[in-house]
Design a protein that fits this description.
Layout: E1 4-5, H1 11-20, H2 26-36, H3 51-60, E2 61-62, E3 66-73, E4 80-86, E5 91-99, E6 102-106, E7 110-111, H4 121-125, E8 129-130, H5 133-147, E9 153-156, H6 166-176, E10 189-193, H7 197-206, E11 211-215, H8 221-227, H9 230-233, H10 236-250, E12 254-260, H11 268-278, E13 283-289, H12 302-314, E14 319-321, H13 335-346
Parallel strand pairs: 1-2, 6-9, 9-10, 10-11, 11-12, 12-13, 13-14
Antiparallel strand pairs: 3-4, 4-5, 5-6, 7-8
This protein binds S-adenosyl-L-homocysteine.
The site of S-adenosyl-L-homocysteine has 17 residues, from strand 10 and strand 12.
């Protein structure tokens, strides 16, 4: 029988499983705190749990761990990029970033991605599987353990499309913010999506308080469909309508992400179209100089981003340019995993 992934269970679920096993309900809270506050990864470290119950726990449950395969530290800022190996041999990336207000962590939500955005390294490497809630959470726990840092913010902007792994991501958010466990306010969490419209409505209904970031990257359907295949399914109109619903339902401002790419979406006319599209919406535009991806020829002129920001500003749209962190450590998301997957393939490893 397959063991239950205990770190993915909410407190109530753990209570139910334990009562079914004939245990007292209060044990669940003790175990939950061992896992999410003291963060042990071995049932034998749960010293106030009887040896007998620990034996049962070991039989029925597993604690999903992940292991540092590679760690790159930037010499320019204190960005650290981790390549984690999962228990089935697959790899994901996690990035720890330092800001003047504290540390923020960027986590992956899938092994690979199905969305196929042209400029993204994760898309080139292909999709393998969704991450379990525990595997998303463990990226934070393991990074905090290794670095000795307590992160103050989480961004779901690593490998994968979070809204394409909706159930597990929502469960992860619930575990992350559980008062009996990690207890992080979801106001310090940002979730980035390429625009899976029905899931934006679902997320709005939950009113979790997370900041929604939407990867827009182009102000018109023709151009957007060329670089983001998801636009063929959910076009800009339907996306903007869903974003307005999210803002109405949650009272939160949305961030639109826009990678400024020469020859693709960086002209004055593009900036004007973008300003027209976003006028009147409670939002902020985050302009991103495109990260180089080996197989693609996309680039951004630094002055191009600044001009684009200025032009948006003049038209009343609040825009900032994203600080480039860790540019000396293979910054484009998904490249480390792809390289590791390739070499493990050569050696007959598990990753696709
Ligand atoms: N799937 C989600 C989150 C992962 S990507 C999404 O699409 O939003 C996080 C952000 O990085 C997205 O805005 C994505 O479009 C952007 N991105 C991906 N590859 C990039 C690259 N090479 N240069 C700049 N931004 C990139």
């Amino acid at each position: 029988m397959e063991k239950i992934d205990i770190l993915s269970l909410g407190l109530t679920e753990l209570e139910n499983v334990l009562t079914e096993l004939g245990e007292k309900k209060f044990r669940a809270k003790q175990i939950f705190q061992w896992l999410h506050v003291k963060r042990v990864t071995d049932f034998d470290k749960m010293t106030d749990i009887s040896v007998q119950l620990r034996t049962v726990l070991k039989e029925k449950f597993c604690i999903n761990g992940l292991f540092i395969e590679k760690k790159l530290e930037s010499c320019m800022d204190n960005t650290v990029k981790y390549l984690y190996r999962l228990s089935d041999g697959n790899f994901v990336e996690t990035v720890l970033m330092e800001y003047n207000y504290g540390h923020s962590i960027c986590v992956s939500t899938q092994v690979g991605c199905k969305m196929g955005c042209r400029f993204c390294a994760s898309a080139i490497a292909g999709y393998v599987r969704d991450l379990e809630p525990s595997e998303i959470l463990m990226q934070i726990y393991e990074t905090e353990r290794d670095s000795g840092v307590r992160v103050s913010g989480v961004v779901l902007m690593g490998i994968g499309e979070p809204l394409d792994n909706y159930e597990n991501v929502v469960r992860f958010l619930s575990l992350l913010s559980d008062k009996n466990g990690n207890n992080m306010s979801l106001r310090h969490v940002s979730l980035s999506t390429c625009g899976i419209v029905p899931r934006i409505y679902d997320l709005a209904k939950l009113r979790l308080g997370v900041t929604l970031c939407v990867s827009l990257h182009c102000p018109d359907n023709e151009g957007r469909s060329k670089i983001m295949p998801v636009n063929n399914k959910y076009d800009i109109d339907s996306l903007i309508t869903a974003c307005k619903d999210y803002i109405d339902a949650t009272g939160r401002r949305i961030t639109f992400e826009y990678a400024v790419i020469d020859g693709v979406n960086s002209t004055d006319a593009d900036a004007d179209k973008l300003a027209d599209l976003l006028r009147g919406i409670n939002c902020h535009v985050n302009l991103i100089p495109v990260n180089k991806v080996k197989e693609r020829n996309y680039r951004t002129a630094r002055s191009g981003v600044a001009d684009f920001a200025k032009r948006l500003g003049k038209r009343g749209i609040n825009a900032t340019v994203r600080r480039t962190l860790g540019s000396d450590i293979e910054a484009a998301c998904g490249q480390l995993r792809r390289d590791a997957a390739k070499s493990s393939e050569k050696n007959g490893g598990a990753d696709a």
